[in-house]
Amino acid sequence: RQLIKSGILAAEQVAGIWLIDEKSVEARREHNPGRGRPSARLSQPNASHYLLMNRDHAVLAFRFDASTGEFLDADEIIDAKRAPLSIMSPRGTKASRVALSYWWSHRTIPKARHGIEAKLAELGIADTYDLPFKSMGLSLSDQYWIKPYGSKIRWSDINYFENDFAEAPVEEWMADVGLDSPDNTSDGVLSKRWVCRNGERCLLKGGTLLDQEPYNEVIATELFSRLLSEDDYVPYTLIEWGGAPVSSCPNFVGPTEEFIPAYYVNEVLHRDSYRHYVECCAALGVEGIETALGKMILCDDIMANTDRHWRNFGLIRDVETLEYRTAPLFDTGSSLWCRVPTRELAYTPFVVDMRPFYEDADRQLRLVGDTSWLNLDKLAGFPEWASDFLDENPSMYGRTDFIYEGLQKRIDYLELLFGQKQGTSKCHFIPRARKAPTKTSRKEPEAFTSLPPR
Questions:
Q1: Which residues on neighbouring strands pair with residue 204, listed in sequence order?
Q2: pLDDT (tens digit, 9 = 90+) per residue, 227-286?
Q3: Which residue among 124, 125, 309, 417 is least enclosed by CB atoms within 10 Å?
């Protein structure tokens, strides 16, 4: 369950049973560090010596065996305070080789991502852990990179924040993988690709069967814009790319910053709970963390977001000043019942198992304290806007009226819980004005046409 919560294993819960993606299990098994004495590993002839860098700061030295994808040591500590939070001992005197290997495993494309096996065969490499070495481990989510020991390469010459990167002209998700590209270090199962547009780095992200996820990201952006300030969230837009709708968002990490998933923040005190996470953030000097978490919990509840695992929120750290702030909200695509088959929507109670603190939505809502920022009146017409926007997706045929109903009921429920505290409760359900389907643009999704009537 902890592997699922942290996002290591891809899984969905159906009727109280966890369905785990087989490929993610295989990837986890293959990334497990091998058994053996450290002295035996250090003698391996294929080991190469590297420095883990954070911008121009050398963090630690390590050896890596490319033939096995195994980190052999991480003994020479140079700058512990700029190392990834999860790999250093509490006093900053030692680095865990196992923790470094685990951190690196999330710096590679997961094997569960569509198309990666064919791409590895095309490149002639054995495993995804080799991909980051194609571009020195460079990313657009942080400032870490790997430098061959004794090399004179400088950060200013190679980083993707200041220097353009290779971008193939074809609109295919895997086109840049294996080249000098940040795509080599992109985590997550859904198809994605980094692009440069007029000097701005943008992340494109696809959807699954019905292509609902990109639309959900834009709907979440509309929700955030009504309730939150601009610094609280990452804005998404919908574009057509590769013949399909995809979401596009700007990089929310600045040229001296790194995103630290909440999973690693929890490693500061080695426990796993809401209160523990708040205490860890306080220990790092983060201000307003409970208000920020309240915004996340409430907005995720409205969107019925089922994928706010411990890697989908966290902190931003400036690697020069070492100051922390809360990361803006991002990645809300797995929401609005997008995994529920169309024929099942008529029977859904519009309540979902939530993340990250409690599966029970009501129990998670009870964590919200400060609601001074919340003005539910600003959501008037939001369910109608969202369902009308989803109508633009032909695959949404037969779904949008139910999604409208679910959104309206979630908002009404929050008014019942929080509006009464402010003396403004006016909980009520407003039926959607149903629209005649557009015959030329709508089609019942083939994946659900064979399902028997319920």
A1: 193, 248
A2: 999 999 999 999 999 999 999 999 999 999 999 999 999 877 656 689 999 999 999 999
A3: 124
Pairing state between β 11-14 and 17-20: antiparallel
Sequence-ordered list of residues with C-beta below 8 angstroms from that of 280, at least 6 positions apart, any chain: 265, 266, 268, 269
Whole-Å CA distances, 439 to 143, 195, 284? 50, 35, 56
Looking at this protein, which amino acid is placed at residue 70?
E
pLDDT tens per residue across span 216-230:
999 999 999 999 999
DSSP track, 133-175 = GGGTT--SSSSEEEEETT----HHHH-TTTS-----SS--TTT
> Residue 381 CB: number of other CB atoms within 10 A?
11
Residue 345 CA to chain centroid, in angstroms?
26
Q: How many helices (H) and strands (E) does the chain have?
A: 16, 13
Beta bridge partners of 248: 204, 237
- Cβ atoms of 112 and 8 within 8 Å: the answer is no
Q: Do residues 133 and 65 make contact, with C-beta atoms less than 8 angstroms apart?
A: no
The overall pTM is greater than 0.85 = no
Burial class of residue 292, CB neighbours in 10 A (0-12, 13-18, 19+): buried
The token pair that represents 361 in the structure block: 């939505």
